[in-house]
């Protein structure tokens, strides 16, 4: 087994994507992130990203990980027995890490090795997420109608992602909103003369399209708008011949219930583990 590290997203894409394409839903997060960076669609950053690929004795990729600026290492669905070697690779390149996220067994294996190398201790789990996919849609309806984003929606989109996803503000800002407008991938739900909900989806990668972000401000919740919006977006992904998938916060039973009603089924659970200072 060998481990290779690169800061070049294009080189990593060429190396790792034949492996990742085998399950584009399971690997949706890392594939979309790397694709955006390789295509120059990501905001300018002050430090590089670090991408790791694990190879068997024949040179074939058997696992991957990435660490982007300001983030923990993301190991995704990495097999636990590969995590210590990946931790070794990052220890050589980076003096410190805030944590690691991904499959629970891999996360703890990485954390144990990192603690051994750095003389620290892993902290508490800070978040749990669940990846879902959908095969057959059960539509949900609500008062109102779907409409595509317009240029004058950019300030609202920026405000709503800041409200709903504060940890993502550096990535989901005005440049992100403008890109959604250009791509036609952000939509709004209007009801009773007001815009009441917002949702989008990723452009498809190898037949998979990730739905999100979905946001409804507090004053418009409990009317079914987010469910109807997600239902319509999911239908569009399916109509284009792609596989819809999405992430939910395991601490939010409402969203998990809504997506289950639509027909989304669990694929994998992931956790965030914060390293002690």
What does this structure look like?
Helix 3 (83-93) packs across helix 4 (104-118) and helix 5 crosses helix 6 (174-183). The protein is built from eight helices and twelve strands. It has two domains: 2-120; 134-270, Gcn5-related N-acetyltransferase (GNAT) (Aminopeptidase). The strands form two sheets. The protein has a nine-stranded mixed sheet with strand order 4-5-12-6-11-10-9-8-7, with helices on both faces. A three-stranded antiparallel sheet has the order 1-2-3, with helices on both faces. The chain is α+β, with helices and mostly antiparallel strands.
What are the defining features of this structure?
Aminopeptidase; single chain; 277 residues; 12 strands; alpha+beta; 3-stranded antiparallel beta sheet; 2 domains; 9-stranded mixed beta sheet
Short description:
With 277 residues, the protein is of the alpha+beta class.
Question: What's the topology here?
Answer:
Layout: E1 2-6, H1 9-20, H2 28-38, E2 50-55, E3 61-67, E4 73-76, H3 83-93, E5 99-102, H4 104-118, E6 122-134, E7 145-148, H5 154-164, H6 174-183, E8 186-191, E9 194-201, E10 208-215, H7 225-239, E11 243-249, H8 253-262, E12 264-275
Helix pairs in contact: 1-2, 3-4, 5-6
């Amino acid at each position: 087994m060998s481990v290779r590290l690169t800061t070049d997203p294009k080189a990593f894409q060429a190396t790792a994507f034949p492996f990742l394409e085998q399950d584009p839903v399971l690997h949706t997060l890392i594939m979309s992130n790397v694709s955006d960076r390789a295509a120059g669609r990501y905001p300018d950053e002050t430090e590089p990203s670090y991408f790791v690929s694990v190879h068997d004795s024949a040179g074939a990729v058997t696992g991957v990980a990435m660490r982007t600026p300001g983030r923990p290492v993301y190991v995704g669905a990495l097999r636990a027995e590969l995590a210590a070697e990946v931790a070794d690779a990052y220890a050589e390149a980076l003096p410190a890490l805030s944590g690691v996220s991904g499959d629970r067994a891999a996360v703890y294996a990485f954390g144990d090795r990192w603690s051994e190398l750095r003389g620290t201790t892993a902290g508490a789990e800070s978040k749990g997420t669940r990846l879902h996919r959908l095969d057959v849609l059960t539509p949900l309806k609500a008062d109102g109608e779907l409409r595509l984003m317009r240029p004058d929606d950019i300030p609202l989109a920026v405000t709503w992602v800041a409200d709903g996803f504060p940890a993502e503000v550096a990535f989901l800002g005005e440049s992100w909103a403008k890109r959604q407008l250009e791509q036609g991938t952000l939509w709004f739900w209007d009801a009773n003369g007001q815009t009441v909900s917002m949702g989008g989806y990723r452009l498809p990668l190898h037949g998979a399209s990730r739905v999100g972000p979905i946001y409804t401000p507090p004053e418009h919740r409990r009317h079914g708008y987010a469910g109807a919006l997600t239902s319509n977006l999911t239908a569009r992904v399916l109509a284009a011949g792609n596989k819809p998938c999405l992430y939910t916060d395991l601490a939010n039973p409402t969203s998990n219930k809504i997506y289950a009603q639509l027909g989304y089924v669990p694929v994998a659970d992931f956790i965030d583990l914060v390293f002690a200072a």
